């Protein structure tokens, strides 16, 4: 639990492992996931490391497994998930068996695929030849049959119009009758359907119109053996005369990747060939079926274990990658490693090392020694499924410096609360809470589905944040008494008026002011009185004043809490000077100015009431504690900063809110201004003074001895001001002082976004109600029911898409900014680096994500 408020105490250790036991020990540490190894060979090339051959073998096994997985997915065979726990990393001697198994499966599958492809190619050729024989028979049957088929085709060509369509390329001979002396030749083939137009144009231009082309589409698609895609083709037959045209036509067909097939001229020969083709096609179908069955059996057997194989190979590869980070001793029999480990887990890690040594059968126990170093340790915060999302919000800004205060536990409460201040609506909050609760309730089934949508994974990862934001929004919605822009009258309104019902109904501009009471009313039991929903004239004025002051109060307390957390850092790191010259001036500056402004708000609320005067007299006497005499907090604060006093324009009222107010204000401002030079020159002065003293005596700096403390054997690096130029120290401190002083003003104003977004959300909900749902509720009769059904659907869609999703995202981003800038800037440096242990779980998860 301690690491939730501050990162884990880390220590740098040196690990000595016997070569025979190193593999098993690293395997156990990978299952544990608590050790971050350092690279002791940073200058050694990746191809020159000791276990590079083993890594290459693992890469080759992964390649073969990916090939098998691709073929399994291609056939749509389900791959069985790993039952129970994840398998352990196999022993090195098992790599040979795995390699042999994968090699056998790959060779068998490749051989089957090659045979299947050759059979499919043969089947495709026979199918195309079958279509050619059928279509060409149709071509020839269109003219006179018998032995003089080509001669009749020639006569038909000569009798055709010389200007016919390009699909029937004309026979351009000057003397058409001369063509009867030469019987034309022809070629037949198959071409892709989309290439037909370009093919016809090329034939026309290259052969100068001296060819005749006929083509017909193949109705059924054919399977491409190489890609297994379905393609559409057409049968064509080209008539020409002479060897020169024959050569030219064949070259054109080759260029367009058309496949030519032999086609007999005699009808009897064509029928005989067609019968032989059909017989061969039937035989091929039988062989193809048997081949596919064998391939399917091989893939089904592989699909049962492929997930398990992937895990084993990746674990082996991760172990050898880690062993490449180690050094060999002089005897070449011992591996030396350096690693960061949590101090609390040293005993657990030693137990894991003993288990690994026993598994390997080694008799030499591993040695784990703690080391001292000036290097900054990594930051490690233990999280669970609830705190993980909140910790990631902090890490998105920056990883905490080692042992720095962790903002995550406080963010668990402040983040959904500040979000709810902006999003406060009971109805919309209930929708958000229901969605978050559903994701939490269905957590395991949803995780098992492994949905690869990035947006869904963001929502699911922040399911507990969404749930808390929705619940807190329901609470603030009750405070605002706002549900879908309407109010709930749970406890009965505390409002009483002195007007009759007719006056209230006829005077729409009538404002019911609290000073019309003739007795003191009790406040509403919880939240805002529902009567304000009827006060259309001054509802916004009242809610503006209320939410604006609440925003400033919340902001000041939030920033004060952030400054107080910096004190916790100073005390832990024993930075005594920082407490005196940084924390105390900062807390005094913020308290004397802005916390005092908050106190004025509470004084005003508790001192001044709604009563104007004593009723019963002709001219009521003004009461000094009435709303008429209530001063403006903003004007009072401005006058305080300018040391200015306005003239009293209301003699019947007091100029101050309490006795001695003006003197206290002047004292507070002077004291706050005196804090600025302390923050500006205090720390550089002490550092310069200590540098001079150390130069005379040779001692360490005051903060150096404090900050250079050890944390579990790992020495925390000091800020080392004594090594810096004093000018840089002054500049650095000046930047931080100016940032804090100006930031106190700007950050306080920045919290007004709580009021602005809350007002905007309420107004958008009110517009959606008035423009849509109220009109539907006012409709009557049968048509009104249909109209209400349509209007309600539109209102619900707008409420979910705009008021819940878009407004929720806007409020989320503004809340994120308030935490990162206004809150964390007071104490959080975020200059550390994350603890990334060697963990099989992380490696397998990242590999699975990369595959998806």
Secondary-structure blueprint:
Layout: H1 2-5, E1 10-18, H2 19-32, E2 36-37, H3 52-74, H4 94-141, H5 149-159, E3 185-192, H6 196-206, E4 212-217, E5 222-223, E6 230-231, E7 233-240, H7 243-255, E8 259-261, H8 267-303, H9 306-323, E9 327-328, E10 334-342, H10 346-360, E11 367-371, H11 387-397, H12 408-423, H13 426-441, H14 443-449, H15 454-461, H16 463-480, H17 501-506, H18 539-572, H19 576-607, H20 633-642, H21 661-697, H22 702-707, E12 710-711, E13 714-715, H23 726-750, H24 753-778, H25 781-823, H26 840-851
Antiparallel strand pairs: 1-10, 1-11, 2-10, 3-7, 3-8, 4-7, 5-6, 9-10, 12-13
Sum this structure up briefly.
This protein is of the alpha+beta class and 852 residues long.
Description:
The protein is α+β, with helices and mostly antiparallel strands. It has 3 domains: 12-108 and 297-371, no CATH class; 112-288, no CATH class; 387-489 and 504-826, no CATH class. It has 26 helices and 13 strands. The protein has helices at 2-5, 19-32, 52-74, 94-141, 149-159, 196-206, 243-255, 267-303, 306-323, 346-360, 387-397, 408-423, 426-441, 443-449, 454-461, 463-480, 501-506, 539-572, 576-607, 633-642, 661-697, 702-707, 726-750, 753-778, 781-823, 840-851, and strands spanning 10-18, 36-37, 185-192, 212-217, 222-223, 230-231, 233-240, 259-261, 327-328, 334-342, 367-371, 710-711, 714-715. The strands form 4 sheets. Strands 1, 2, 9, 10 and 11 form a 5-stranded antiparallel beta sheet that branches. Helix 2 packs across helix 10 and helix 12 (408-423) crosses helix 24. Residues 144-183, 614-618 and 700-722 have low confidence and may be disordered.
């Amino acid at each position: 639990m301690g690491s939730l408020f501050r990162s884990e105490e880390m220590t740098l250790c040196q690990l000595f492992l016997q070569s025979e036991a190193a593999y098993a020990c690293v395997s156990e540490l990978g299952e544990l996931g608590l050790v971050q190894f350092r690279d002791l060979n940073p200058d050694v090339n990746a191809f020159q490391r000791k276990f590079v051959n083993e890594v290459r073998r693992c890469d080759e096994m992964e390649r073969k497994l990916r090939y098998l997985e691709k073929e399994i997915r291609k056939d749509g065979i389900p791959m069985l998930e790993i039952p129970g726990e994840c398998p352990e990393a196999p022993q090195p001697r098992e790599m040979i068996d795995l390699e042999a198994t994968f090699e056998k499966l790959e060779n068998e599958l490749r051989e089957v695929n090659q045979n299947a492809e050759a059979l499919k190619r043969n089947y495709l050729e026979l199918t195309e030849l079958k279509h050619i024989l059928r279509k060409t028979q149709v071509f020839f049957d269109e003219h006179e049959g018998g032995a003089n088929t080509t001669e009749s085709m020639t006569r038909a060509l000569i009798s055709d119009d010389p200007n016919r369509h390009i699909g029937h390329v004309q026979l351009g001979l000057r003397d058409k009758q001369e063509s009867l002396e030469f019987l034309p030749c022809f070629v037949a083939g198959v071409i892709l359907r989309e290439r037909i137009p370009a093919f016809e144009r090329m034939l026309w231009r290259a052969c100068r119109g001296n060819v005749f082309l006929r083509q017909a589409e193949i109705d059924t698609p054919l399977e491409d053996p190489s890609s297994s895609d379905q393609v559409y083709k057409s049968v064509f037959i080209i008539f020409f005369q002479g060897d020169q045209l024959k050569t030219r036509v064949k070259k054109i067909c080759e260029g367009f990747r058309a496949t030519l097939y032999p086609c007999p001229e005699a009808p009897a020969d064509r029928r005989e060939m067609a019968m032989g083709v059909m017989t061969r096609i039937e035989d091929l179908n039988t062989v193809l079926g048997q081949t596919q069955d064998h391939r399917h059996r091989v893939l089904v057997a592989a699909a049962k274990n492929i997930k398990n194989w992937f895990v084993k190979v990746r674990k082996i590869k991760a172990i050898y990658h880690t062993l490449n980070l180690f050094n060999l001793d002089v005897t070449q029999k011992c591996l030396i490693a350096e690693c960061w480990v949590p101090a609390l887990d040293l005993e657990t890690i030693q137990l894991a090392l003993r288990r690994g040594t026993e598994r390997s059968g080694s008799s030499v126990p591993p040695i784990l020694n703690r080391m001292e170093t000036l290097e900054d340790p990594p930051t490690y915060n233990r999280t669970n499924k609830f705190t993980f999302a909140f910790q990631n919000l902090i890490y998105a800004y920056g990883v905490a410096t080692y042992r720095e205060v962790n903002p995550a536990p406080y963010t668990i409460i402040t983040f959904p609360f500040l979000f709810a201040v902006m999003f406060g609506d009971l109805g919309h909050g209930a929708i958000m809470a229901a969605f978050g609760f559903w994701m939490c309730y269905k957590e395991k089934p949803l995780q098992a589905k492994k949905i690869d949508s990035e947006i869904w994974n963001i929502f699911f990862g922040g399911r507990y944040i969404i749930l808390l934001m929705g619940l807190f929004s329901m609470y603030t919605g009750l405070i605002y008494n706002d549900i879908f822009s309407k109010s709930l009258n749970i406890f009965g309104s505390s409002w009483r008026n002195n007007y009759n019902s007719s006056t209230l109904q006829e005077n729409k501009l009538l404002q019911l002011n609290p000073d019309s009471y003739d007795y003191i009313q009790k406040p509403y039991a919880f939240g805002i009185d529902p009567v304000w929903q009827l006060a259309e004239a001054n509802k916004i004025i009242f809610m503006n004043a209320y939410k604006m002051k609440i925003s400033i109060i919340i902001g000041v307390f939030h920033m004060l809490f952030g400054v107080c957390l910096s004190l916790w850092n100073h005390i832990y790191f024993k930075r005594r000077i920082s407490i005196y010259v940084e924390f105390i001036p900062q807390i005094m500056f913020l308290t004397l100015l802005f916390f005092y402004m908050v106190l004025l708000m509470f004084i005003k609320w508790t001192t001044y009431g709604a009563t104007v005067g004593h009723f019963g007299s002709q001219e009521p006497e003004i009461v000094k504690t009435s709303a008429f005499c209530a001063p403006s907090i903003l004007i009072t604060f401005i006058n305080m900063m300018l040391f200015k006093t306005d003239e009293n324009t209301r003699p019947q009222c007091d100029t101050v809110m309490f006795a001695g107010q003006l003197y206290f204000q002047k004292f507070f401002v002077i004291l706050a201004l005196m804090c600025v030079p302390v923050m500006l020159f205090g720390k550089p002065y002490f550092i310069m003074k200590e540098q001079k003293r150390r130069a005379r005596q040779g001692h360490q700096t005051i903060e150096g001895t404090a900050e250079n403390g050890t944390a579990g054997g790992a020495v925390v690096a000091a800020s080392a001001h004594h090594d810096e130029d004093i000018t840089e120290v002054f500049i650095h401190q000046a930047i931080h002082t100016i940032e804090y002083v100006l930031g106190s003003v700007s950050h306080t104003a920045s919290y007004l976004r709580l009021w602005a977004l809350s007002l905007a959300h309420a107004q958008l909900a009110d517009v959606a109600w008035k423009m849509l749902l109220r009109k539907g509720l006012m409709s009557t009769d049968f048509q009104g029911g249909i109209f209400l059904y349509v209007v309600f659907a539109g209102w619900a869609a707008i409420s979910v898409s705009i008021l819940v999703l878009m407004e929720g995202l806007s409020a989320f981003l503004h809340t994120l900014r308030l935490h990162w800038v206004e809150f964390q800037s007071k104490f959080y440096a975020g200059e550390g680096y994350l603890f990334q242990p060697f963990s099989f779980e992380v490696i397998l998860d990242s590999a699975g994500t990369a595959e998806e």
